[in-house]
Amino acid sequence: MALETSPDAPAAVRTIANGIAGWINQLGAVWVEGQLTDVSIGRGTTTVFGTLRDTDADISLRFTCNRRVFEAVDPPVTDGSRVVVNAKPNFFARRGTLALAVTEIRHVGIGELLARIERLKQLLGAEGLFAAHRKKRLPFLPHTIGLICGRDSAAERDVLENAKRRWPAVAFRIEYASVQGPAAAGEVMTALRKLDGDDSVEVIVIARGGGSLEDLLPFSDEGLLRAVSQARTPVVSAIGHEPDSPLLDLVADLRASTPTDAAKRIVPDVREELDGVRLLRDRGLRAITSWLDREAHALAAIRSRPALAAPATDLQRRSDEIAALVDRNRRTLTHRLDRAGDDLAHRLASVRALSPKATLERGYSVLQLADGTAVRELDQVSAGDLLHARVSDGRFDVEVTSKESK
User: Fold this and answer.
1) Where is the Exonuclease VII large subunit C-terminal domain (predicted)?
2) CB count, 10 Å around CB of 291?
3) Pair 35, 51: CB distance under 8 Å
4) Considering only CA atoms, which of 275, 283, 264, 247 is closest in space to residue 205?
5) Structure confidence by residue, pLDDT tens digits, 272-289
6) How far is CA 395 from CA 128, 252, 279, 367, 376, in A?
7) Phi and psi for 211 in degrees, rounded to 5?
């Protein structure tokens, strides 16, 4: 029931606490899945205390359990175990705390875990988080490598020793995080954000040794997988051994089978690179030498050709051809000029034969009137007209004394 309160008539703490307890205690028992943490058994008591943590969110609830119920689970449960419990919510009014009163505990089966991982795999795959085009290329020689691993772990030693053995100058920035248990995914995400925000870090390695399926569950956490997919720095997954395959392997830009393999994949071997440089240098020297020899032989072959061995021969041949063409041109021109001269003489003779001067030289004369008109008809003149007579060597005047038709 709702309480009527006011500043002048407030409710007592016990009233509110008892009201909350009465409401919550009416709730029935429920089955809850989570991960056990902070489990403790007090001395001389039959009650087990602990926390039940959500596996995908940073939310938890306290729980209490009878010691017999807790120890009856086979195999025994410990911190980090994934369980399903039957519990009833209880509110303790005296302490003002809420806890689950557990009456039964069961392990989450391996089959169920695998099924959940498979469903998450299909979900992320449908969103394209595993697509090849999202993978970022690793730098050939990173100057600084970010490493996320457990403190004083074998994975840390494997990555550092193998990387420095291959390239002694490589530098590391290490962020330690829990690599199993309920807090692992959150701590790894925090370390990832720190390294991804450092501009000097060129590649990030998340490394952990082998373990059971439950131990590697944090590396199939959806929040961690999405954080890796959104990182701007290339991420290398080096979790467990070759058979282990957490979903982080699929989201990361590169999957290494072991931490040792990660060191080999991200850092080149200085000796191998020097051998490669030496090999390429020798190959280049051989290629240049071969090319120079080939070009020298080709040049020698060109120089041995007659055109270069005795260039005057070709010039002399061309000179003879030019002289022959000049002589032929001269003969042709002379012949044509001779023919043109003969033709001109014939035409000149024809002109002379047809000219009036030739006619006059044969004894004829031309009579012209006073105005210069040639006399062609008898009617043009009359007795007493003064005419001009033109002969071959001059002219004289004549007077018409009479005329007579034919």
Assistant:
1) 129-305
2) 10
3) no
4) 264
5) 888 889 999 999 999 999
6) 128, 132, 118, 10, 18
7) 175, 180
